[in-house]
Prior knowledge:
By secondary structure, the chain is of the alpha+beta class. It is about 30% helix and about 20% strand.
Amino acid sequence: MEMSGSSSGLLLLLLLGFLIVSSIYATSDSIYNDFVQCLSNHSSPSLQASSIVYAQTNSSFTTVLQSYIRNPRFITSSTPKPLIIVTPTDESQVSAAVICSRDIGIQVRIRSGGHDYDGLSYISDVPFFILDMFNLRSIDVNINDETAWVQAGATLGELYYRIWEKSSVHGFPAGICPTVGVGGHLSGGGYGNMLRKYGLSVDHIVDAKIVNVNGTILDRNSMGEDLFWAIRGGGGASFGVILSYKVKLVGVPEIVTVFQVEKTLAENATDILYQWQHITDKIDDDLFMRLLVQPITVKSDKGTTKAKKGQKTVRITFIGMFLGDSTRLMSVMNKDFPELGLKKEDCKEMNWIESVLYWANFDNGTSVDVLLNRTSASATFLKRKSDYVQKPISKTDLEGLWEKLIELGKPGMVFNSYGGRMNEIPASETPFPHRAGNIFKIQYSVNWHEEGAEADKEYLNLIRELYSYMTPFVSNSPRGAYLNYRDIDIGINHNGKDSYQEGKVYGDKYFLNNFDRLVKVKTAVDPQDFFRYEQSVPPLP
C-alpha cells in the first residue's frame, strides 16, 4: 500500500527527531566517557569516578538535577540541561573536575545551594557541566577562637545549627533563608537581620579555600590578598570554585526580641513609612527592620475608620529584630520611632536560634532540627530585582507608588534597613560597594503558580514595570543592584570580543567603583575566562 505525502513527511520528521535525540545522547555519552576517564586519571586510585558523575542517560540524573533547583521556572522541558553533573565528595575531586572540564573544553556551572534567582548556577545556553557541591558541607565550629570553617555546599541553616550546638551566645550575620548555600551567599556579599550591628557575611571572612583554573587548591596565604578580596563579594564563580570559608563568629545576647506590626493605608501607613525612612538608618544599631509592602484586598471590615471589605489597599508589615530585651527595645522605639505605635505585647523575647526559626517563618515551638532540612518548601515560580534608596521618598510619591502597586496587583516590595555598621565600612573594603549613603535596600518580588511561557511573560512584565516606575526614587549613575539578587534584566555577557564592555553594564551596577579592580584580579587569575557565565566578571581584552 502506497503512503500518502503527508504520512511520509510525518515519518521523515519522526525519524529526524529520533536521529537528533540519538545524536545528543551519543555526544553526551562520549563526553561522559571522556570525563570519567580524565577524572580517574587525576584522582586517587580508590575513586570510582562513575559514582560521582551523572550522564543524561542515568536514571538518577533528573533527580540530582532538580534537587537543588529552587525556582520552578527552570524545571521545564525547554530548560537547557547539563551534559553531565559532577558531585564531588572531597576537595581533590573538585580539583580534578576543574582540570577535566578545562581540558575537554566544556563550560562549568558551580552550584552550592541552587538559590540563584535566575538559575545561572545550573543553566546555560552553551554545552555545560554542573559541578554540584552539595556533598561538601562539613562545618567545624571552634568556640575557643570564635571561628568556623564552612564548606561551600553547607546551608545557612546547618551553619546556624552547628554554632548553636556549641554556644547560645554566638551567631553569624547571614541570610534568613536556611536552605541557602554558603558558597554562593558568602561569595556574593551575604546580608541578614544583623547587618546594622555587624555588617555583611563577607565582613567576617578570615580565610578561604578555592580551586583555581589550574586545579590548584589555594588558601588565603597562597592565593594572595587580591583574589581573597575578590571572592568576598565579587562572586566566587568568576574566579574559581570556592571550597570553604573560615568565618569569625559574632556575639549575640542571651535574649533577643522580635516583633511584627501590620499597617494599611487606612491605618496611617503612609505617614509611618515616611517617618521610618528618616530614622531607619540612624536608629540604635541593635535594631533591624524589614518592611513587607504588598497590595491586598481587604477581607473584613475593621470599623468605620478602617479599610472596608473588598477594598484594594496596600499593607505594610514591619518586622523587627532587636539584639536585646523588650524593655530596652520599647525605650528605643518610644524615643526614635513612636509613630509605629509598638506595644510591649507586640514583642516576643527569645534566644538567637529561636529568632532564626521565627525569621524563617517556622511555627512557634518548631524544633531547631528543622534547620538541618536541606529541601525548600517553596514551589512557586518567582522573579526578584533590587534597588537602593538614598533619599527619602516624599509622601506624594509614596501615594503614587501605592496606586501603582494596586494597579499592578501582583508584585510586592521588601524594604531592608541600612545604616549602622554598614556606614562605617569603606565601599572599597570588599567588592560589595553599597555601604554609606544608602537608607534602605529594595527587593522587588513576584511569585506565581501558573505554568507556561505566557504566565512567565505576564508576571515578568509586571515586576519590570514596577522597577521602571521606581527609577526616579532610587540610586542612579549607575543604578545600584545586589549581586545575590541575581537579575539578568540589567545586562548579560555573551563572552565574545565585547566581553569587557558587556560586563561593565551589569558590573558597574553590582560593584560600582570596585568593578575595574575585580576585572584586574580576573585577568591575573583566569585570563582565558574559563570560569564564565552570563554575568561573570570578564578579563581585560
